[in-house]
UniProtKB/TrEMBL annotation, chains A, B:
Its EC number is 1.1.1.3. NCBIfam families: PRK06349.1. PROSITE patterns: ACT (PS51671), HOMOSER_DHGENASE (PS01042). Pathway: Amino-acid biosynthesis; L-threonine biosynthesis; L-threonine from L-aspartate: step 3/5; Amino-acid biosynthesis; L-methionine biosynthesis via de novo pathway; L-homoserine from L-aspartate: step 3/3. Belongs to the homoserine dehydrogenase family. This is Homoserine dehydrogenase. Coiled coil: none annotated.
């Protein structure tokens, strides 16, 4: 049988990984797929640089992206240029030309996914996106196919390696965010402009995609609540540890009766959970299903060959399924297009979590009583209290409170009221806490 | 579209889970599969007991298994009776009748897999077996589809919950094997006859299946090296801990130039690895691929609904794929039947691992030197030595040695030579050690 022919858009690290993995493991892959997979064209802005990145792979490069996606001899287009505007146009052009598409572009799918999947369905082609979430971990496949028996209850994932590396370093070395970020940039774990990572945007793209395929709702990145790790202080990592918790930047999506939670924020997680022990740039996703219970998927979330592993898995899936009746393929968003849910994404005020609070309070009688009264008045019950002399001196104290689950809107009112107390001497730190079991 | 019609053989806990999950999540599953899935017949030896187990599900039960597999209105037969003889006959009869088959029966596939898959391929039907390995964890799907880009290097898994529960209890409570086994039986974590679990046979069935789909070799259970946990002593768990290791019963399969390792045995694993922290009856499988690096999959490896989760995922896969050209389906053993490898399963003497040795030696000069000389003469290099006064008194000492990787045959010779020394006062304990990274 003739090999499946592939055009790759982009010639960065992931493109280079795809070309190298397909060449190195070509025999192994063909033994599985029953058919060869061959990259016949690479489109790159800078063809000289592309040649360098791709080494002696012998694949032709050109700078005409539009021509590459329309080549009549191409079966699958792999989009690896990133960004949302040109990538959207090229992916839609490829679909229009009847090509299957594989993409690692989470931003593109989190924002334009509904449009792209609708176009693909109309044209009877597939869009594979395993590489868009958690790199080499086959989490999209697990959610769309491995756990089809389940009503998914929630997903919580470490889905950004840069921030997990920074948090791991902050904890193990007791350092501040800024110091570790500089180190991460020096080591290549963080980009020169790390905004998308450290502000949680990248994790939110991925959480948005997982939310859609877990609950059968359209991708709605604009409804995600996003907080990064830039304001996190070493003191809170230390206090969390003393209370048996670690702080991780989690992408969380959860089904509630009223709708769906979709949020990214630093989160206290019990130290004994496996996900709390995922260190460095590694990724891990916990999925809770009603039949299967808790499952976890762990691996490298980024990098040339781990991401290529996911891209190539999609290429093999398409090779296997492209002759199948489109109605019998795995639906892009896990649920049949005519069976999607209209459950709303809940505003953050309606989200339910427990909280970690750190208040710097005057060291005088009655302070704790006033604070606990404010919480009690809003039906927020307290799980644990830790009081420590502040580093600043004797006249003030760090007061740490862990609460049970409550509604965020109620907590925000309580926080405003506590902050207004004259005995609360600094801005209150409030972090969300999840038991994840 | 008419629902897919299913006959279930067996009415135990997993069958009951399958029926309940399909009923409870019927809407969710249909929204994914695009078609209903309906159990129309259950075959059970004791129909009265079956009725009780299945509760008010309203599915007809009968005791004629042969009739159930041949019913013309059945599309898929789910085999959940266990054992290898009757199960083999029924599965082959179902295939012969043109039915797709889903089975949770690892013993059946580890022993008769090649015959069953060949019959299924000849008939153009699918045999799903996600539930046969690690229960609800979609590890078969990850290996056969999620990691197709990779040359798999090795797999190491906690794939028997009973033994992991026992080892967790032995470690956390410092108890002996016998005490914990009795407790596990009382709690229902171990069977009245626990031989298959504690002797490693169940884990070896699962490791055999994973080995076949990872490396494209036929299932060869008879070539697996199998050791259980019955001889494990509390002292070694304690010493391992002091050296930074935990002891887990692992199913391991690894590709070497000379062939494939396939083995189940208690194994020292660095305590900092995620898999070392998998406690209680949970399962976890680590897969090392050349492109993706290390990945890990964690969840419940047994139980009614976790196993049902895997069975139903297979049912949905078959629902999606049964109209597809058989040549384009996922091959049963991951590789195309005409592209299998004839790499041999290596005898245990050729396996390469590091070792943990505990020797009870006379407390006199020259003992350590004689022992290290024996190891050095066989090119076995030492990683660490720990010497502790034995509980037995002052005249003898526990000598713990960690070695670097060596060939098992060489170690066995060294062990025989050391055991013959008059200063070695008790049988030497030798356990294998894997770094798993």
């Amino acid at each position: 049988m003739k090999p499946i022919r592939i055009a790759v858009l982009g010639a960065g690290v992931v493109a280079s990984g795809v070309v190298h993995v397909l060449q190195r493991n070509q025999q192994e892959i063909q033994r599985r797929a029953g058919r060869g997979l061959e990259v016949i064209a690479i489109a790159a802005r800078n063809t000289a640089k592309a040649h360098e990145a791709l080494g002696a792979t012998g694949v032709a490069t050109a700078d005409d992206f539009e021509a590459a996606v329309r080549r009549p001899d191409v079966d699958i287009v792999v989009e690896l240029i990133g960004g949302t505007d040109r990538a959207r146009a090229l992916v839609l052009a490829a679909i229009e030309a009847g090509k299957h598409v594989v993409t690692a572009n989470k931003a593109l799918l989190a924002v334009h996914g509904s449009e792209i999947f609708a176009a693909a369905s109309a044209k009877g082609v597939m869009v594979g996106f395993e590489a868009a979430v958690a790199g080499g971990i086959p989490i999209i496949k697990a959610l769309r196919e491995g756990l089809t028996a389940n009503r998914i209850e929630w997903i919580a994932g470490i889905i950004n390696g840069t921030t997990n590396f920074i948090l791991s370093e902050m904890r193990s070395k007791g350092l501040d965010f800024g110091t570790v970020l500089a180190e991460a940039q020096r080591l290549g774990y963080a980009e020169a402009d790390p905004t998308f990572d450290i502000e949680g945007v990248d994790a939110a793209h991925k959480a948005t995609i997982m939310s859609a395929i877990a609950f059968g709702v359209p991708v709605q990145f604009d409804k995600a609540h996003i907080e990064g790790i830039t304001k996190l202080q070493a003191a809170d990592i230390r206090y969390a540890e003393q209370l048996g918790y670690r702080i991780k930047l989690l992408g969380i999506t959860r089904r509630r009766d009223e709708g769906i939670e979709l949020r990214v924020h630093p989160t206290l997680v019990p130290a004994k959970r496996l996900i709390a022990n995922v260190e460095g740039a590694m990724n891990a996703v916990v999925v809770q299903g009603d039949a299967v219970g808790t499952t976890l998927y762990y691996g490298k979330g980024a990098g040339s060959e781990p991401t290529a592993s996911a891209v190539v898995a999609d290429l093999v899936d398409i090779t296997r399924l492209h002759t199948a009746d489109p109605d019998h393929r795995v639906p892009h968003l896990a649920f049949q297009p005519d069976a999607m849910s209209d459950a709303p994404i809940l505003p953050i005020e309606q989200v339910r979590t427990a909280f970690y609070l750190r208040l710097v309070v005057a060291d005088e009688t009655g302070v704790l009583s006033r604070i606990t009264t404010i919480l009690a008045e809003r039906d927020i019950s307290i799980d644990a209290v830790l009081q420590r002399e502040s580093a600043e001196g004797e006249r003030q104290t760090d007061l740490i409170i862990l609460t049970h689950d409550t509604v965020e809107g109620r907590m925000r009112q309580a926080l405003a009221q506590m902050q207004a107390l004259p005995t609360v001497l600094a801005p209150i730190v409030a972090l969300r806490k999840e038991e994840l079991a």
